[in-house]
Amino acid sequence: MLPCASCLPGSLLLWALLLLFLGSASPQDSEEPDSYTECTDGYEWDPDSQHCRDIDECRYRYCQHRCVNLPGSFRCQCEPGFQLGPNNRSCVDVNECDMGAPCEQRCFNSYGTFLCRCHQGYELHRDGFSCSDIDECSYSSYLCQYRCVNEPGRFSCHCPQGYQLLATRLCQDIDECESGAHQCSEAQTCVNFHGGYRCVDTNRCVEPYIQVSENRCLCPASNPLCREQPSSIVHRYMTITSERSVPADVFQIQATSVYPGAYNAFQIRAGNSQGDFYIRQINNVSAMLVLARPVTGPREYVLDLEMVTMNSLMSYRASSVLRLTVFVGAYTF
């Protein structure tokens, strides 16, 4: 119970009021530090320093990739190839291909990055972005049968004059005679060979021979000039390629008439001065013309292949000639 204020002297009254004030203030002073624990967002009360200190939110791993602590806050960052999602914490892949990736030709997005690729016929440059043309012709001499021409992103095969491209790399002779792409007159016959054609006269018979069919000339027995000549000459034409492997059978000769007791012998009568061909007799009525060594064109042979018919019992001897014109093409195809 407090003393009566009117009963105390003035000095004592002053002391009594002072004690009364201090007694009422002491409980509040002991709770004063608690009144400062309410800090702003991003801070917490530090009882040691009696101040609000920054909270390091990064230690709670709020961010998917990287976290940067800031005074009173934090910021999430993503690795290259990613960007912050709508929640500003998770990272989503960036499609660099839709954002102007520096790929020259083709771009493929992948998780966190992208890849540059090139079209067929190109290869990726060392910088990983640009594309360089591949010179396919320099890799192999077998890509094309005749000539390989490099083009941007591809190559093409070309054939020489007189040939056409077969599929993509082979060359095929153009038969001008069959296609009508020739300049032969009505009095001529078109003869096709590898890489070209030849116009030959329909009548190639020379005196004393007379024409009896389109390609056959006959020397009449009644003509004295025919006594030492083959009874007939038949004209034939064929074509072969250059550098053909040898020996090679190229043409078969066949007797059209067989006489009892007769023996037939075959030989090259003319046109083989270099010995490039020889005759291999198969039987009494046929023989094979054989190419003896490789020949290079363009070149032309006119070979008189003779069949001599003999009958010793009747003292009979006659001959006929197959005049074979052999065209050698300029190429191996």
Automatic annotation (TrEMBL):
SMART domains: EGF, EGF_CA
One of the GO BP terms on file: elastic fiber assembly
CDD domains: EGF_CA (cd00054)
Pfam families cross-referenced by the UniProt entry: cEGF, EGF_CA, Fibulin_C
Signal sequence segment: 1-27
Record-level GO cellular component terms: extracellular matrix
Keyword Repeat attributed: yes
SUPFAM superfamilies: Growth factor receptor domain
Domain EGF-like: from-to ranges: 54-92, 133-172
Compartments, as annotated in UniProt: Secreted, Extracellular space, Extracellular matrix
GO molecular-function terms, A-Z: calcium ion binding
This protein's UniProt keywords: Calcium, Disulfide bond, EGF-like domain, Extracellular matrix, Glycoprotein, Repeat, Secreted, Signal
Coiled-coil region list: none
Stated family: Belongs to the fibulin family.
Protein name according to UniProt: EGF containing fibulin extracellular matrix protein 2
UniProt organism field: Gorilla gorilla gorilla (Western lowland gorilla)
